[in-house]
Design goal:
This protein has about 475 residues and is an alpha/beta fold. About 35% of the residues lie in helices and about 20% in strands. The protein contains eleven helices and 14 strands. Strands 1, 2, 3, 4, 5, 6, 7, 8, 9, 10, 11 and 12 form a twelve-stranded mixed beta sheet that branches. Strands 13-14 form a two-stranded antiparallel sheet. A hairpin with a 3-residue loop joins strand 1 and strand 2. It is globular and about 90 Å long. GO terms for molecular function: actin binding; adenylate cyclase binding.
Length: about 475
């Protein structure tokens, strides 16, 4: 008998058994009725057809590949249970949503731990599987103001991150073992077209909560975290957490600065996506002064417009140049397989954070908006051109950092990069943050002058920066 048909029959029998007990311990009356909903039946078909194919290929390989595939099955099973509960539960608050989705988050965190520590021979398999599970976060979409892409777009964007490692599996085993190739192809089809088409057919605008169902239990309030040295590590990361990191200084850190703090905490950036609350949005940020002098207003550089010119890219070209283009709303992009002979070119990205782990030759950030870049070491220079509202953090050393035709740039320097040469031209709102003298000291913020006065003395012009006071 066809293997796909067997899986579908097994799911049908499971549903009938649940109904036969009518109100037993496994399914309540509401849950049993929801289990017969067309969207739940379609999700069972998705699991039997696509997840079943990934499992069949993994069983031929065994080892860690089979282990991570079993976690994929657990994640899809957890999402199925949540979809049933959503149909009989009222829409919770943001904190209640995080608690409601905790079972799925726990499974994804368990998968993430498999990629930590020493790299195994199947590291690319593990990363492809773990990164693909972020696609299941489509269930957290609550509206256009929730800070994430719509469900269909989120599934596609999540797979783009996983496809980087999935392609490595295809290349490595293309002429070595067809079972690995079959597994990689099945994993892709599970998400594209499998999960994407399912979401498109049943939940294009996100999950539909019950208007008259029971109320979801909210998460208990947490005790305030003790103050820590800057930059502060956030609370334990959660894929569906809606809480913003707590500041340790008098000045609150919001937006991408909070994302930098999470990266500095040492936690793996692939733990998952974080919900963006209203106080983290740029339009609500309190760290921008509203008092602008007339001279400053006249000298302000116009913000370059943003336009999405093409499909998103994150790839290594010709073995020498990493290209990151047209990424939107991606807060956990990572380049971890680089060397000192390679360069990184970032173009046309918006509301995105990229972490570059390792030494590279050169970094260029071009025509980006609300972009965050965290890098370790650069051999030549880090260049920011034609940007608006970017934040760049150097965790190691960089001989030169140049900022050209840019409005709003935050530079975070490490102790090893305090001797960096910073060059600015046609730019405004340039702030440099440097670490304090002691381990518990707050970071110091210095605004670089954007206007200069030129006076002709002794047969030559003497140029001095112009400072503005609030008076």
């Amino acid at each position: 008998m066809d293997e796909k048909l067997v899986h579908r029959l097994e799911f049908a029998v499971s549903r009938l058994e649940a109904l036969s007990f009518g109100g037993g311990a496994s399914l309540g009356d509401g849950e049993a009725a929801a289990a017969l909903d067309p969207s739940i039946i379609a999700f069972d078909d998705l699991r039997s057809q696509f997840v079943g194919r990934v499992r069949s290929a993994a069983e031929k390989i065994g080892g860690q590949v089979l282990d991570v595939t079993k976690i994929i099955e657990e994640a899809f099973e957890a999402q199925r249970e949540l979809l049933i509960k959503i149909k009989e539960t009222q829409k919770p608050s943001m904190s209640g949503l995080a608690q409601f989705l905790k079972p799925l988050n726990d499974v994804i965190v368990k998968a993430t731990k498999m990629t930590e520590g020493r790299r195994s021979d199947f590291f690319n398999h593990l990363k492809a599987a773990v990164d693909s599970l972020t696609a299941l976060a489509w269930i957290t979409y609550t509206g256009k103001d929730c800070g994430m892409s719509m469900p269909i777009a989120h599934v596609e964007e999540s797979w783009q991150m996983a496809e980087f490692y999935n392609n490595k599996v295809l290349v490595e085993f293309r002429n070595k073992d067809p079972n690995h190739v079959e597994w990689a192809k099945a994993l892709k089809e599970l998400h594209l077209p499998g999960l994407r088409d399912y979401v498109k057919s049943h939940y294009p605008l996100g999950p539909v909560w019950s208007a008259t169902g029971k109320v979801a239990v909210s998460a208990p309030p947490k005790a305030p975290a003790p103050s820590r040295p800057m930059p502060p590590p956030p609370p334990p990361a959660s894929l569906f957490s809606s809480e913003s990191p707590q500041p340790s200084s008098s000045r609150p850190k919001k937006g991408m600065a909070a994302v930098f703090d999470e990266i500095n905490s040492g936690k793996p950036v692939t733990v998952g996506l974080r919900k963006v609350t209203d106080d983290m949005k740029t339009k609500n940020r309190a760290d921008r002064t509203s008092v602008i002098s007339a001279g400053e207003k006249e000298g302000r550089v116009s913000s370059p417009s943003f336009s999405k010119a093409g499909p998103p890219k994150l790839e290594l070209q010709m073995g020498r140049k990493w290209v990151v283009e047209n990424q939107i709303g991606r807060k956990n992009l990572v380049i971890d397989d680089c060397d000192a002979k390679q360069s990184v070119y970032i173009f046309g990205c918006k509301d995105t954070v990229l972490q570059i782990q390792g030494k590279v030759n050169n970094i260029t950030v071009d025509k980006c908006t609300k972009m965050g870049v965290v890098f370790t070491d650069v051999v030549a220079a880090c260049e920011v051109v034609n940007c608006n509202g970017v934040e760049v953090q150097c965790q190691g050393s960089a001989p030169t950092i140049s900022v050209d035709n840019t409005t709003g740039c935050q530079l975070y320097l490490s102790k090893d990069s305090l001797e960096t040469s910073i060059t600015t031209a046609k730019s405004s709102e340039i702030n440099v943050l440097v670490p304090g003298a002691g381990p518990d000291s707050d970071w110091g913020e210095h605004a670089l002058p954007q206007q200069f006065a030129h006076v002709y003395k002794n047969c030559q012009f003497v140029t001095t920066p112009v400072s503005h006071s609030g008076g």
